[in-house]
């Protein structure tokens, strides 16, 4: 199997470099030295906006108003686990 190309410099020489704590294969670019994961599954923009609002401690009702969606839609689309997990993390910080 060929190693993936580096998302930073675009060159293909890379080597396996252990695993993430989630079990995904880490790679290191032999050209620029950066470490990357082949399939990083980055968050889409709406999810990032939601997390940013949660971190700013905007109430769910206000978030629904700003995003123009119902609270049921917020829970269905993003899942109560995401919301509860972020809020629980905030509770540990404060």
Task: Name the features.
single chain, alpha+beta, 94 residues, N-terminal domain of TfIIb, elongated, three-stranded antiparallel sheet, 2 domains
Molecular structure report:
The protein has 94 residues and is an alpha+beta fold. It folds into 2 domains: 1-41, N-terminal domain of TfIIb; 45-93. The chain contains 3 helices and 3 strands; from the N terminus they run βββααα. Strands 1-2-3 form a 3-stranded antiparallel sheet, with no helix packed on it. The protein is elongated and about 50 Å long. The mean pLDDT is 77.
List the helices and strands and how they pair.
Blueprint: E1 14-19, E2 25-29, E3 35-37, H1 45-55, H2 60-67, H3 71-93
Antiparallel strand pairs: 1-2, 2-3
Helix pairs in contact: 1-3
């Amino acid at each position: 199997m060929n190693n993936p190309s580096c998302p930073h410099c675009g060159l293909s020489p890379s080597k396996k470099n252990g695993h993430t704590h989630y079990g995904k294969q880490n790679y290191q670019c032999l050209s620029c030295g950066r470490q990357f994961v082949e399939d990083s599954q980055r968050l889409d923009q709406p999810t990032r906006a939601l997390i940013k609002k949660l971190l700013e401690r905007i109430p769910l009702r206000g978030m629904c108003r700003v995003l123009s969606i119902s609270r049921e839609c917020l829970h269905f689309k993003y899942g109560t686990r995401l919301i509860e997990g972020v809020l629980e993390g905030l509770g540990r910080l404060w």
